[in-house]
Amino acid sequence: MIRLEHLAKAFGAKTVLRDLTLEVPDGRNTVIIGYSGTGKSVTLKLIVGLLEPDVGRVEVDGEVVHEMDRERLAALRGEIGYVFQFAALFDSMTVAENIRLGLVRRGHDERESGSGRWKASRWWSSPAPRPSTRPS
Amino acid sequence: MASRVTARDGFVAHVGRRTLETGRALADVRTWAPLLLVQMRRLGVDSVPIALFIAVFTGIVLSLLSSYIFTGTVPLYFVGALVGKTVMMELGPVLTGMALAGRVGASIAAEIGTMKVTEQVDALETLAYDRYSYLVVPRVLAAALMFPVVTAFAMAVGVGSGWITSINLLDLSTTEFLKGLKQFYRFKDVWFGLVKSASFGAAVALMGCLRGLDATAGAEGVGLSTTRAVVLGCEAILVLDAFWALVLL
Predict the structure, then answer these.
(1) What are the sequence ranges of the domains in chain B?
(2) pLDDT tens string A43-60
(3) Minimal Cα–Cα distance from A48 to chain B, Å?
(4) What ipTM goes with this model?
(5) What is the pLDDT of residues B200-220, one digit of tens each?
(6) Residue from B89, B88, B64, B100 nearest B229 by CA
(7) Which end of chain A is less packed: N or C, by CB atoms within 10 Å?
(8) A23 touching B, CB under 8 A?
(9) Domains in chain A with CATH codes
């Protein structure tokens, strides 16, 4: 369960979120639609703790995100799959290293991450990128 | 929450909090340790050519300048003393630090700033990597370790070029130059310069990282952060230079 209560967030003079309240129950697909600059990405970043709200609370499974300690926040992020708008690929790394980075962090074997998992991920891309190339 | 840095913090408080975060991140050895060697090569080894270039001309100018000052007043072999002392204790660390503030500080700020504005830093966080452990600590440690190494090379080359200039352009022999060099030499001259240099490296890298992490607004923002990183790095060197002179001399 994700619960947003009376969230407000501003960047300088620009108010992006004003009194946002939203509840996302378990097992439901929720879509946030809006024009550019209306706070969709900001809302998602508040949920995973990349931003702190100026006002209000963000709760995930009963825990307030911006009150979590570092370890608990890392565990939360491990449970959330986050895809950035412009991919946010690490362009100083190869494709294989990009895939491996998060998997190794979660304790997967480095060799398995470098080859097996990459092969499993190829289905999503056609033509598939070579693991030794860098993101373009 | 991971960081309590807020937009309302003044500059000193801002740098102070982020420095504390960096100190805290030192404990996350499994994250930064694998990255340290690569950073040492990039920040240190690759900086040797520019440092040596500066050292060569520093030695040349110092020997000519000291000859101009000493001629007719004190024996000319004092050129060796002045070149040695000045290169080891001051110009070697400071000029090397300034040059590397431009090279190292700018490259760090540009790299991390670009990562910031393209959300790669946020992506690291979502993969449970702490930005300070992954980005800041390896660079700061690498610079703190490698700046003294680069400075040591610069010291040797600076004194060497001063010697070559003295024997070729001044009325000075190698024996006389070495006499002056050893006259007032103390081992403290060397470690004083190297200790300063290590602090310069840490400060330059830290300023580059912090400016990079604060980059905003695309390419223009990255450019501004890079410029600011170089300026702050140079300012930090001057402040630390005075600090160490007060504390250690």
Answers:
(1) 30-248
(2) 999 999 999 999 999 999
(3) 7
(4) 0.79
(5) 999 999 999 999 999 987 889
(6) B100
(7) C
(8) no
(9) 2-78 (3.40.50.300), 89-136 (no CATH)
